[in-house]
Structure formats: structure tokens, C-alpha cells
Design goal:
The protein is mainly α and 171 residues long. 82% of the residues lie in helices and 0% in strands. The longest helix is centred in the middle third of the chain and has 118 residues. The mean pLDDT is 80.
Length: 171
């Protein structure tokens, strides 16, 4: 083998070694690219899930906003109604006070009429079934003039009978 053949073989061996090193380095880079591609795919999937959650959150937010707007509209309507009612009550306030004063005056007049009618009413007749209750004789000390008058008023006894009962107590 000649020197040219050996040098060609050596050069071929060096080129093969260089190709082998380059292949090995390219394989490492391709592996890193595949790993990053898988990481990128995972990142895209996570981003997609986050986008779906954000869309759901926005839909919930829109629904809550619509509900809040509806509630607020109802409250504004109710506030306007209450405001109109309050304005009407403020306008009618003096008339209402006058009506209450007239009502109180009517009550006073009615009370005066009733008390006057009560005073003018004739006494009620006694029922036939009622019977006279005789005073209970009390032994002991004599009664004063005031006590006698009170007893006469209370028990409706004729003065002669009352004196008889009272005189027994003195003996």
C-alpha cells in the first residue's frame, strides 16, 4: 500500500470520525429539540386550559354583571317609587295633619255628647227578682254620724231601721 493509499485511508478515517462526532452532536441537539417540543406542547396545552378557564370566568362574570344590573335596575325602580310616594306624602302632610286634628275634635265632641247623654239618662228600674238585703247587725261599739250616713247610703235602709240597729250596738 502506498503512501497515497494510507493517507487517503487516514483522511477517510478522520472524515469518518468527524462525521461520527457531528452525528453524535446533531443527535443531542435533536433530542433537546424533541424535549423542548414536548415541553412546548405541554405549555400550549396548559395555556389552552387557562384560556378555557378564563373564558368560563368571563362568562360567569358577564352573568353576574347582568344579574347585578337587573337587581340594581329593580332597586332603582323601587327607589323611584318610594321617592314619588314620599313626595306625595310630603305634599299631603298638612292635609293629613288637618284631617287628624278634625278627627280628634270629632272624638272630643262625641265624648262630650256621650257624657252628656249618660248624665241625662234616667235611672234603671230595679228588677222584680231583686230582693231587699237587710243590713247585718253588728255588735260592738257605736257608729259615728259619718259611718251611719255611709251605711244608710250603701244598704238603702230606712233611717228608722238603721237607728234601731245602731241603738242595739250601744246597749
Amino acid at each position: 500500500m502506498s503512501l497515497v493509499a494510507i493517507s487517503m485511508n487516514l483522511m477517510l478515517a478522520v472524515l469518518l470520525a468527524a462525521a461520527l462526532i457531528m452525528g453524535w452532536r446533531l443527535n443531542r441537539r435533536l433530542k433537546a429539540l424533541r424535549d423542548s417540543h414536548e415541553g412546548f406542547a405541554l405549555a400550549v396545552a396548559e395555556l389552552d386550559a387557562a384560556a378555557r378557564r378564563a373564558e368560563q370566568g368571563l362568562a360567569d362574570l358577564r352573568a353576574a354583571t347582568d344579574e347585578a344590573a337587573e337587581t340594581l335596575d329593580d332597586r332603582v325602580t323601587e327607589a323611584r317609587q318610594l321617592s314619588a310616594r314620599l313626595e306625595r306624602q310630603v305634599r299631603e302632610g298638612p292635609a293629613l295633619a288637618e284631617a287628624e286634628a278634625a278627627e280628634r275634635a270629632a272624638e272630643r265632641r262625641l265624648g262630650a255628647l256621650l257624657s252628656g247623654a249618660h248624665e241625662l239618662r234616667p235611672p234603671r228600674p230595679r228588677a222584680e227578682t231583686e230582693r231587699e238585703i237587710a243590713p247585718i247587725p253588728r255588735p260592738g261599739r257605736p257608729l259615728s254620724k259619718m259611718a251611719r250616713a255611709l251605711e244608710e247610703d250603701l244598704f238603702d235602709t230606712p233611717p228608722a231601721e238603721a237607728a234601731g240597729h245602731l241603738s242595739r250596738g250601744r246597749r
